[in-house]
Amino acid sequence: MRPVVFIGPYEHHSNLLPWRESGCEVVRVPECKKRRTVDLHELERLLSNPQFNNRIKIGTFSAASNVTGKVSDVDAIATILHQHQALAFFDYATGAPYMKMDMNPSPASGTDCPDAS
Question: In the 8-state DSSP scheme, what is residue 46?
């Protein structure tokens, strides 16, 4: 079974294309219409979907969008991903100079792979 990668609504092409080309199944998590951020309830629903059981699960989200400037709740997203045995990857390319990047996070809520390239 191929891995499944959950991506946010604000992903830059450079954070999307490698996952598509790797053969992973890519699932987009929409924006919450009310809060205008990553829809955490939908993320949880998608991660709970039985079709993704027994598969490697990865979440990859922009910490901050280079198009909209929206900042993702990295800790909340990582916590939900980890509750569903998914890895949490975050792209800090836009936000690294302006945001806190915890390189030694707690196992429950931390980032598995922060990237600022």
Answer: H
